[in-house]
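Practice problem: predict the structure.
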Amino acid sequence: MSPQNEYWLSGSKDSEVRSYLHGKPDLHGLIMNAAGACIRAVAVDPAGKRIAIATDETTVKIVELKEVANVQVLSGHKKCVRKLTWHPSGTLLTASGADGMITAWDVSEREPKVEKFIDGIIPAVADTESSEFMHDCSAVWHPSGQHFFVPSRTHEIVAISRPNWDKSFSLLDPNATGATTALALSVNGVYLASACKEGILIWSTQTKHVLWRHAGSSDAFITQVAFSPSQNLLAWADTGGILTWWRDPIPAGSPDPVKATAAGGVQGPVKRKSTPTLWGEDPINGNGDDAPGTVNDYGDDWIIDDIGIRMEDEHGERRAVDGDAFVKEMVSITEAQPAFQPGSTPMDGKKRYLAYNMIGWIDVTDQDTHHIVNVGFHDLSARKSYHFSDPFKYDVGYLGERGVLLACPPEQDHPAQVLYKPYGTWSAQGDWTYILPLGQHVLGLAAGGERPVRSLRDQSSSGGDIQGHGNVVIATSAGDLTFLSGSGLERIVLGLEGEYVTMTAGEEYVVVIHRPGATTIDGSQGLMATLISFDDFEVLQAKPLPIPKGNVLKWIGITVEGAPAIYDSAGFVHIMINFRRPNRATWARLLDINTLERKQGKDESYWPVGLSQDTLTCVILKGRQEHPGFPRPLTQELPVRLPFRNKDPAESSIEEKLARERMHINLARDALGDALTSSELDKREIELDKSIIKLIQAACKADKAPRVLELTRRLHFTHSIAAASQLAGFYKLIGLQEKIDAIKRGRENGPSPAEEARERRRRLEQEDVYMERPRLLQNFDPPPKIERPGLTRSVGVVERSEFTSSNAPGLPFNARYAQIATRSASPDGKRKRDEVDDFASNASDADTKRRAVGEIDASIPSPKRDNPFARKSAGEAKKNPFARKPEHTKPIQKSESFFNKVEAVEADQSKQRATNRKGKDKEKDVSRQTTLFGLPSKPLAEKKGKPLQKGEEPKTGTGGIEASTSVPHISDVDMSEVPPPSAAATLVETQDVERVATDDTQPIEEEIPIEWEASPPPSPQ
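Answer:
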């Protein structure tokens, strides 16, 4: 039906269009007969002079009401037209076709022409008998004529603006499910009414939010809705044949739906009149009017009350509406992105995808009373595809490494529930169901777990794969995250900060995207990514998403290497690097879709499925298509290239590959644990060094020494550094070659890259130590020692030369002296003096004298300070500090040794002989002659004397030991001249000999008396 000023018109399946007068049931006239074609839509232009008629044919006819013979035919539609609407000016006619195409016709001239084809917005419905064909897909024009509203196939309400015919914004309510079946605008354009499965929703076209709701009928859906042109009334009709009206749908105190207001006027930027200049000159255009393009429909003194206070005009008249409330206008802010499931699509022709990733896909087919769920896999050798009937109509799904996760919404008394179906077939009771409290619904699902080590199609009687069924995470409308095991065991419920958006799961963790605060006025979504460990629910990372302002998140997933990755509407692909290092992750831009060669000059977009180191797996969408349809399209691979801006054809590709490979090697090394290296990583680093060598060669050729040194430091192996040195030598860069050799020596003598990485990881672990629980009352222990190599005490530099004591053997002074100055006893028990005695004493003196100034002997321990306040034992506490210390029995001391006495006698005899033998040759006494450094003098050569006579004994030294060349020569002593010793002296000498033997040799058990030989008779004079 369509109203006109004097009558209203209707079209029906009997192929006729009739007119009726207002208030009378009698037929007024017959407008047109379609010759057997069913009438699908009729629309009267704003002037009430023409009517547009659509039938089951592919043409649209425009008939003049006063002269029905004047007909214009609009041809060019591929299928029949479902709905027709007029522009407020009456110069444009928009036709919504069954092929999903909106055609804008320019009918301002005699010959109509197509102004714009708009594809990909409304759903395509070919079956005219289906219930979807009865849904309202009209392009409802705003009274301003600048844009129109239309229900989209993604269950959104989209605003298309002209003259560019672009999508300006969309309306979406997370609580509304299903398709929008009808639309209507109020007369002044302030409110928009939409019908869906839940009922009637009334939107504000300014704030783009739902203001009021009205429940609908569960047995039928609404096919048409309309505002009254004269009063506060809303009416609608449904498929059950019931006409319903809602009186006063707009509450008192809100802007009227009929009267014209500033909010319902022209949409777009409204500019105020220019402020008068200081001296009162006319505006720039010179005529006192507003500048061109300025809209001034509300007068010079209009102002929007955006803070809600009561404002008064100059005459004291308050600008109020009915009641005590007043008009409030809010500043337009960024629309918050609703929750979504990665890899899911809206319902399109009774089919949709619940999940689509690198493992497989989940699609459902709506059979009105139930759904058919199909689970398919890309690798059929590891998992088997299957399908089943779904009476609960699951609308959320996730395809994990260990099982399929599905959830259905709550409906009346039936609560929302989650179904988990593991892949393994070894247990008949593998499936389990988790039921939520009544009133809560599932916002998102994620299922993580380790990748299987074998095919999950094989049955096993031993309990299946011992790795288990993974982990399950459920995000609910109650603002929490519920963690369950793969067998259905509840583990923990975590509170989620802010609004949930989406999530995905890997082998060890789950990545949750949420909005801690609110969106900003400049277009930022304010999203945050939080990594939570499955083992201990520890927050590993919490990083904001690097989404440009004015864009939204399109996809989130896990790369083949196990790193989180995202894709936004601006075309940027980011990957989280260093995510295994607590609180040290960051987002690296991996790809810019807009710079791809294949996209240049093409109108296409990309729907990501998976990401690896070198390729982005996606579905390519043509035109304005936003989601893949059915039959399932093939996935394609796009090359991954870092968005570097270096355009050098010789080096840009190598630099890009080098940086990307280095990034993924670090990710692989972080996953190795303490090993930090493997044969596979070594091979990759060798290939990396080959690429660096190519860059070094190019830099040597261009004589870029700093670049060569920088690249050399990035080499991983010493033989690669040697190759770089050879390149520098080949190009005659001798100075550069020496520096490269120095880098090589530093690498060989210093720690290896693996050791440096291990030390760096150790320092990071020290920074992230666990916080211990404090002890009772107070902890009096001293603070732990903190190792700070950069703050160690400075040590003076000691010069080493041949004149310092550092060249001596590394032994303490006392030990060296003990080794050098040891004395031994003869086999007869008689003592003899070593030839090194004097050398040891002199060497020790020289060692002391030659020590450098300020040099400290390392063998001398530092004095130990006693703590005067230390607790003493009971025995020490009872001692008298003033008591006299007992004197132990001292050994008998002597003043002189036996050898000293003998030497004194020999010296006296030598003097006497010198007096008696004046003028004669005599021997020199060199018994105690030493050199300057305390060394013994050179022994005298033996005199060639007469051979020994028969019965004559060889001459011996004192003590009965033969004189040798190593012992100083002692002349014969005439013992007859020596006075006989007294008994006391004999006792002292005996005790002295015993003491010397005890000190220089091992202690003896028994005292053995020394037997002295008789002195030889004096020689005749």
